[in-house]
Design brief:
Blueprint: E1 3-8, H1 15-24, E2 30-36, H2 42-58, E3 65-70, H3 74-80, E4 85-90, H4 93-109, E5 114-119, H5 129-137
Parallel strand pairs: 1-2, 1-4, 2-3, 4-5
Length: 147
């Protein structure tokens, strides 16, 4: 069984994240969505649990997806699940350069762990969690960007 890890803070979990997760299921038998948080910030742990619960509800009918919080390196999460790959979405060259560096680091830490980069669909390229947070801050309706 091929397992992949889809890591992120997912603040919030957007339609872009949902699209990457669903597309990853075409490539892997099992997907672990890892909701990461900073252990040095106690409020992050509570918030991460809430986000994980929301994501679990979204995929309640999909037995091949599991969701968990984690406060370790992503490579350690992948090793714990015996994952063959990390899945990440990229929207731009900036995303690619960042993800390439992370992929090289994770491969070193987890003995050759692969990273699979899925390009955002054109209609989702502008969707980012930081954009959604900013719109929320200004009281705008963000439902078009959320699954």
């Amino acid at each position: 069984m091929k397992t992949a890890i889809f890591p992120g803070t997912f603040r919030p979990y957007t339609k872009g994240h949902d699209d990457i997760a669903r597309r990853a299921l075409r490539l892997f038998d099992r997907l672990v969505i890892g909701v990461g948080y900073n252990v040095s910030k106690p409020q992050d742990a509570d918030s991460a649990e809430e986000r994980a619960a929301d994501i679990r509800r979204l995929y309640a009918a999909e037995p091949r997806i599991t969701v968990e919080t984690y406060d370790t390196l992503t490579a350690e999460l992948a090793l714990r699940h015996e994952a063959c790959a990390i899945v990440r979405g990229v929207r731009s060259v900036r995303d690619y350069e960042y993800e390439r560096d992370q992929a090289l680091c994770n491969a070193l830490l987890a003995h050759g762990l692969e990273t699979v980069l899925l390009c955002a669909k054109p209609e989702l390229e502008i969707v980012s969690a930081s954009m959604v947070r900013e719109l929320q801050h200004f009281g705008k309706d963000v439902t078009p960007f959320l699954p």
